[in-house]
Amino acid sequence: MKAILMTAAGEPEVLQVAEVPAPQIQSPREILVELKAAGVNPIDTKLRKRGTFYPERMPAILGCDGAGVVVAIGAGVQHFAVGDEVYFCNGGLGGHPGNYAEYATVDERFAAHKPSSVSFAVAAAAPLVLITAWEALYDRGRLEAGRRVLIHAGAGGVGHVAIQLAKLQGADVCTTVSTAQKAEFVRSLGADKPILYKQEDFVAAALDWTNGEGVELAFDTVGGSTIAATFPAVQIGGDLVTLLEPDATTSWKVARTRNLRFSFELMLTPMLQGLVDLQEHQAHILSECARLIDEKKLKVHVSQEFPLVEAANAHRLLETGSVTGKLVLQI
């Protein structure tokens, strides 16, 4: 089969088109999927630059997100049949091969039926960001109706679905964006207050929006110094959930004096640690999101599609930091 191999850690040029053996079903509950599209995520570019979680297993096939058609099933498969359309987040971290390829295997417990109303490209763009936003807002942040949420980078891959999931829960949403065009985009998703952070102080804007109280929940997708900068925007006793590490020089004094509850969200942990129950939970999230997508209550925005052989160009564009929504490889 054709695949994109990461031959070494480095710049996008290390992603090379190659012919490799197609994967084979190795366990009774695995399915073999003919991939139609693969999502491109920041974790892919990070692993390409610094090396995968399994450096001894090189070359590697990147790509956690995939969507395609089941072409073979293991003897113990219960929930899928040949011909079913599926989507999933599995592999691509350097161990189990990822989805920058024509075929992939996945345990049926970690896959979900693809939303029928969208293309394979849209479905492939969805899994990692849907799971991340769902776990951050619902599992970590315990979001309830009537609460006010600050979401950083609302026009990004995770941010744009987080806005929608927050609104579906009955929350009010303010979100940081870099341009007026992105402000209009997040408004179209239901955001109540876009904050153009390059033109105004986002903390002052969030406090003004909440009558000086601060938001009940802040969701950070940026990391670094943004985390500490967000502390005063959260109300006393509120929650802050982040996807990334705080800056090494972070002062926690404001967080402590405001009694903030701080959580990390890394949706890759179940895959990295082999936590089957949590991987099944993530597949359940995808099933719920497929229903919401088909009911036109949730959408995933794909800003650009690339052919598989142009994976390096997709990485270059993603690393500019200016992408709205998601990028996808068509296979």
Write down the CATH class of the largest domain. Alpha Beta
Number of strands: 15
Basic shape: globular
Main sheet: strands, sense, barrel = 7 strands, mixed
The chain-level structural class is alpha/beta
Helix content: 25-40%
Reported by name, the CATH topology of the largest domain is Quinone Oxidoreductase, Chain A, domain 1
What's the CATH H-level superfamily name of the largest domain? Medium-chain alcohol dehydrogenases, catalytic domain
Work out the count of structural domains: 2
Please provide the ordered H/E string of secondary-structure elements: EEEHEEEEHHEHEHEHEHEHEHHEHE
Q: Give Rg in angstroms.
A: 20 Å
Summarize the structure.
The chain has helices at 42-50, 120-125, 127-140, 157-168, 180-188, 202-209, 225-230, 253-257, 269-273, 276-294, 311-318, and strands spanning 2-6, 15-19, 30-40, 65-73, 85-89, 103-107, 111-113, 148-151, 172-177, 193-196, 215-220, 234-242, 261-264, 302-307, 326-330.
Explain what the structure shows.
By secondary structure, the chain is α/β, with parallel strands linked by helices. The chain folds into 2 domains: 2-126 and 268-330, Quinone Oxidoreductase, Chain A, domain 1, CATH 3.90.180; 129-264, NAD(P)-binding Rossmann-like Domain (Rossmann fold, 3-Layer(aba) Sandwich). 31% of the residues lie in helices and 26% in strands. The protein has 11 helices and 15 strands. Strands 3, 4, 5, 6, 7, 14 and 15 form a 7-stranded mixed beta sheet that branches. Strands 10-9-8-11-12-13 form a 6-stranded parallel beta sheet, with helices on both faces. The longest helix has 19 residues, at 276-294.
